Amino acid sequence: MRGVTDLVGCRVAWRARGSGSRLLLERLWAEARDEPAPESGQPADSHLAVAAAVAAGAADAGPAVRAVARACDLDFVGLTVEPFELAVREEAVDNAAGLIVRLRDRAFAAQVAALGGYDLARTGEQRRAT
Predict the structure, then answer these.
(1) Where does residue 17 fall: left (phi above 0), alpha (psi -120 to 50 degrees), or beta otherwise?
(2) d(CA 92, CA 123)
(3) 62 and 25 housed in the same domain
(4) H or E element that contains 24
(5) Tens digit of pLDDT for each residue in 16-57?
(6) ∠96-101-102 over CA atoms, to 5°?
(7) What pTM does this model have?
(8) In angstroms, rounded to a whole number, what is the distance separating the alpha carbons of residues 44 and 98?
(9) Percent of the chain whose pLDDT exceeds 70
(10) Which residues pair with 12 in a beta bridge?
């Protein structure tokens, strides 16, 4: 399997409509100008549920993060890289200070890096929306 178009004809562990993983998969299919696979696999409410469905044989594949695939001893095919940011109102930035300190902590970064598949180069960086 090399990409999203290889999922046509496979049983896919589907995330809920509107979930980030579901929207990503639908967008990638639309960009590939391919018909989406019919919802013939297991419904899955989390990345771990996707991996469990694949591991149990209820689905052939499904959208999940590398760390979960690794934890369940499954193969992983990267489809895309997506940055993740936390939006905080300006007046609430002080309330997020503990989280920001934790994100910048080297021990925490080492734990996240050990999961695999995460780029921490800009983790904890703050910027204003433009």
Answers:
(1) beta
(2) 19
(3) yes
(4) helix 20-31
(5) 888 888 888 888 888 887 665 556 667 899 999 999 999 999
(6) 100
(7) 0.75
(8) 32
(9) 92
(10) 61
